[in-house]
Amino acid sequence: MMKTLFSILLLVGFSSAYAQILPSDTVPAIINYTTENGITKFTSELRPLRQIAGAPAPFYTYFWEFGDGGFSFEKAPIHIYKGKDPILARLYATNNYDDGKRPPTKPKPIIKPNTTNRPMMASNSTDPSLFKMGGNIELKSNCMPKPGDDMMIVFGYRNKPENGQQNLNGTVAILFNDKEFANNNFVLEETRAYNEEKKADLKPLLSTAYLPIKKNNSAVYYASLNEMQFNADEKVLLSDKAKDFKSSETWRFENLKQNEERFLFMHFKTTPEMLKDTNAVVRITAFFIPDNPLVEKEFFNMELQIVASHDPNKMVLRKTRMNYRFTGKNRELTYKIRFQNTGKGPAKKVDVAVNISEVFNQETIKITKTKPEVVNCDSAYTNQSCIKTIKGTDSVHFVFSNIYLPGLQQKGVNDADSTMGFVEYKIKFKEKPKKLPIKSGAAIVFDKNEPIYTNRAVGRFKMGLS
Question: Are 239 and 214 in contact (CB under 8 A)?
């Protein structure tokens, strides 16, 4: 009896000890701040990272929402608050190359002290402008969507000087949950607005508002991670764009002054059902519809990859599920390989090696976009930034040369976007393939460092008589 009791107690002891050493992902991000001379400085405390076996060193990326319409993607930002009312700040930290969940977000009340000292700064934040593509609207996410996890999107809109208007009234809208997928991709948990935007109805505009379609025949490899279209050569009804989506949210804005920038903060939850669509590409589209007919309407397309873990180096196949009936030697697939220099110094050369499935015809490879923007090395002058395509038996190398890609941990680098790049290409089949999955992967080498391997992008044919 005593021996049995001892065995039970020993087992319970081992179970308790094991339970105590299990890692916990429930510890929220802790926000710390100090205010001096009207300038608030933020820092954070986050759980230790746990490296995925075989992956590069893990690291956090940051998105701060200051609670007054301001934001930052820096690790330890500074901000200037106006007024004296208490406010809630939020930190969304993303754990890259980490085997756990991201730290939960817990809003932090910010008490703004009474001070008569004027801040010794020219602006509210050191964060670079969101509007990198020159338009009136832009979207930016803090991470790629992971099933069951949170994702923040900043929806920025402005009245740029080229509009020639001192004030603008109008409508902005966002469309999500692509009809290509049976299940919804996202649930919009909350939208936080700080400029008296009012919820509105998009339906009355669907049959009357036209959106521009810009034609572009330039041979330059463009660096846009997303698409923004304006200055129309052709036009299309807004309803033709909206019909591809199941969900939307719309707001009215008023008295948008020239050069003024405003931001909506959208808290999305990626649905757990999207796990089966890991590596699939989903779309979110934003509209800018001013009341003034002299100001061009715009739309902005954002493409996001459903991921199983947060990894900045990814291979993406745009259409992962194909109709077999319409697949032949002239069918063209589009792949994109994203990469990020997470090191402490700049990279001058990036070699993106891609495994090419035997069903493809390598001679049909055509680069469509790159970041950084470069020319083909065949037409480059000496030491010009360029990209060269080197074809092997079952692989192809896209080699960026003479570039400057900053490192994420490099001193003085505050813009994470500047450390990222990609190459996008199209390729055709040799002939009609067998109805089997098509798999591709990539290895990325920065200068002379060890290769970083991406996920495998898998294309599948739809079930049944497709």
Answer: no
Contacts 24+ apart (CB under 8 A), 108-114: 108/31, 108/33, 110/33, 110/40, 110/66, 110/67, 110/81, 110/86, 111/86, 112/35, 112/40, 112/81, 112/83, 112/84, 112/85, 112/86, 112/87, 113/35, 114/84
User: CA 18, CA 228: separation in Å to the nearest integer?
Assistant: 52
Specify the CATH number for the domain of residue 394. 2.60.40.740
Domain-ending residue, one of 100, 125, 150: 125
Query: Structural domain of residue 72, as residue ranges?
Result: 26-125
Q: Which CATH number goes with the domain that contains 106?
A: 2.60.40.10
Q: What is the mean pLDDT of residues 7-30?
A: 54
pLDDT tens digits, residue range 53-85?
878 889 999 999 999 999 999 999 999 988 777
DSSP track, 59-112: EEEEEEE-SSS-EE-SSS-EE---SSS-EEEEEEEEEETBSSPPPPP--EEE-P
pLDDT tens digits for range 125-137? 444 578 888 899 9
The CB density around residue 363, as the number of other CB atoms within 10 Å, is 9
pTM, entire model: 0.77
Cα 169 from Cα 193, distance rounded (Å): 16
Looking at the domain assignment, is residue 131 inside a domain? no
Q: Give DSSP secondary structure letters for 231-263.
A: S-SEEEEHHHHHTTEEEEEEEEEEEEETT-EEE
> What pLDDT score was predicted for residue 264?
97
Could you report the per-residue pLDDT of 164-179, keeping only the tens digit for each? 999 999 999 999 998 8
User: Are 339 and 431 part of one and the same domain?
Assistant: yes
